[in-house]
Amino acid sequence: MDLRRLYREKEQEIKGRLRDFEMAGYRPPRELFPELCFCLLTPGTKAEQADRMIKHLVDTGLLYQGSEQEIAKVLQKRVRFHNAKARHIVAARALLADERFRLALLREPAKAREFLVRNVRGMGYKEASHFLRNVGKGEGLAILDRHVLRNLVQYRALQRAPASMTPQRYLEIEEKVRSFARKLGIPMEELDLLLWSKETGRIFK
Do residues 112 and 144 make contact, with C-beta atoms less than 8 angstroms apart? Predict the structure, then answer.
């Protein structure tokens, strides 16, 4: 499939979605917290399912006040590694009172990502990049999920998908994505949504 042609077809929808993300980024940390937790749930779980679980936790008040056991019970059978992810959500609440979190989101994306990786349990480069993109602060960052990696191999931007992803390897592949995006003439954050929609049939988050 010609990615440039597909981009022309979806460009306005993609740009509109990114504008939605940018507007979301102006909200206070408490209102960004559900998005952070959504990104903590996504490894090994479909995005739509993770999104439904976060909305349920918000609606029931459990996201902000529920115990680790109560949250795990909701996630059970719907989210992989539900016990660990419930533990990560509860631990992440400390960010809501941490002024460094708010200030980190004002920094350039790469530095904001480093803060998140160092300070949020369960959050690696992919999840931190995903969160920052979804709050309009992920310019120049790659979200190296299986959809993107599969397409990088398909379009020969990457020889093969890595069996495991170390931080160094992530940054090396991210640079390949950056070069691939420049070659296509498609902004990096738009390329991610394009490849995701190519695989799933929709532009989500």
Answer: no
| Residue in 51, 145, 192, 205 annotated catalytic | 145
Query: Any idea what the Cα angle at residue 145 is, between residues 138 and 52, rounded to 5°?
Result: 80
- The amino acid present at 189, given as its one-letter code, is E
Distance CA 117, CA 127 (A): 9
Distance, CA of 179 to CA of 104 (rounded, Å):
27
* Catalytic member of 126, 137, 192, 205: 126
The dihedral built from the CA positions of residue 133, 36, 26 and 13, taken in this order, carries a sign that is positive
Query: Model confidence at 4, in pLDDT bands (50, 70, 90)?
Result: very high
Does residue 192 have an active-site annotation?
no
If you average pLDDT over residues 155-165, what whole number do you get? Answer: 90
| Model confidence at 1: pLDDT above 70 | no
Q: First vs last Cα of the chain: how many Å apart?
A: 22
59 classed as catalytic: no
Q: List helix spans (H) across the chain.
A: 3-24, 29-41, 47-59, 62-65, 68-75, 82-92, 99-104, 109-119, 125-134, 146-154, 167-184, 188-200
